[in-house]
From TrEMBL:
Family annotation (PROSITE patterns): SAM_MT_NNMT_PNMT_TEMT
Protein name, as recorded: Methyltransferase
Source organism per UniProt: Actinacidiphila acididurans
Entry keyword annotation includes S-adenosyl-L-methionine: yes
Single annotated GO MF: methyltransferase activity
Highest taxon listed in the record's lineage: Bacteria
GO BP annotations, alphabetical order: methylation
Length: 270
């Protein structure tokens, strides 16, 4: 969740330089620095997001109309060095694709696959407050190892005519990969088009982001709020999209963003 890692210094002018997704140094993303800053401990904003996503997926799959579905495949788009979106899909998936552009993050994910680090345990503990996670017959590490497939790739290359998934997540990616609103909107569109009609999804966004640093490299972002997020999701969603601004429950860690937004919805049949 990007900006929480060393955002612009207080008083810095907002960045005006345009940087497209293809121009950013993704292979130099430092997953150790990123995890250390963002996910070493479970923060209350992540906890709030996790609860919303856990309840959304649990409610969706509890309903009779989805109970008879066959093998399910989940996808986390731009997984980076964050395992909790994949953990949130774990009870319902026979396979989970972690799609990631950065070679360094792909390496991190491969290392986590066989036996993920203990910093992810408190995230799993929040999930187990719901029966689907708590009643899993398998140890979460064993299930993670068995179901996760790590794929190095570009979300702009996702092609719904070739492949679609039955549930999906995309956390802090569409708004945190470019200064371009067009790329933000296209990123959200590619994510939703990768999902089958009716598939439940959860997406998280940094609000009002002006870019971020991870390790010694700076990465681009575009500043979005609930309006832009809702407008990007609505054309390919059905039913109600639950959008929640998380704000900064513990106050700002640093300047350069205004909070977080979590969106839970369902892919339309268009
Ligand atoms: C701010 S990080 C978010 C990581 C993680 N999802 C999280 O919740 O913390 C943005 C991630 O998007 C990935 N990314 C950027 N452009 C991408 C693209 N075109 N296709 C796939 N992943 C991309 C980056 O490598 C990075 O891992």
């Amino acid at each position: 969740m990007d900006q929480r890692s060393h955002d612009v210094a207080l008083g810095d002018p907002p960045r005006t330089r345009h940087e497209l997704n293809a121009d950013a140094p993704w292979d130099s993303f430092d997953p150790a620095a990123y995890v250390d800053h963002n996910y070493r401990l479970l923060r209350s904003d992540d906890e709030e997001i996790l609860i919303a996503v856990r309840d959304h997926f649990s409610d969706h799959f509890r309903s009779a109309s989805t109970a008879s579905a066959g093998p399910r495949r989940g996808i986390d788009v731009g997984a980076g060095a964050n395992l909790y979106p994949a953990l949130a899909m774990l009870p319902w998936c026979d396979e989970i694709t972690l799609l990631e552009r950065s070679a360094a993050n792909v390496q991190y994910l491969h290392a986590q696959r066989s036996d993920y680090d203990s910093n992810w345990n408190p995230f799993w503990d929040v999930l187990t407050k719901e029966g689907a996670y708590r009643d899993l017959a398998e140890d979460p590490r064993a299930r993670f190892k068995r179901t996760v497939e790590i794929r190095e790739g570009n979300l702009f290359d996702l092609d719904p005519d070739r492949e679609q998934w039955s549930m999906g997540t995309m956390f802090f990616v569409a708004e945190s990969m470019s200064t371009s609103y067009e790329e933000f909107r296209t990123g959200v569109e590619r994510f939703l088009r990768a999902l089958e009609p009716g598939a439940p999804y959860a997406a998280a966004f940094m609000e009002g982001s002006v870019g971020y640093e991870v390790g010694s490299h700076r990465f681009p972002a575009c500043s979005v709020g609930e309006t832009e997020v809702g407008e990007a999701l609505t054309p390919l969603s059905e039913g109600k999209i639950v959008l929640r601004s998380i704000g900064m429950p513990d106050g700002p860690l640093r300047p350069g963003y205004e909070g977080m937004i979590v969106a839970c919805g369902r892919r339309s049949s268009e």
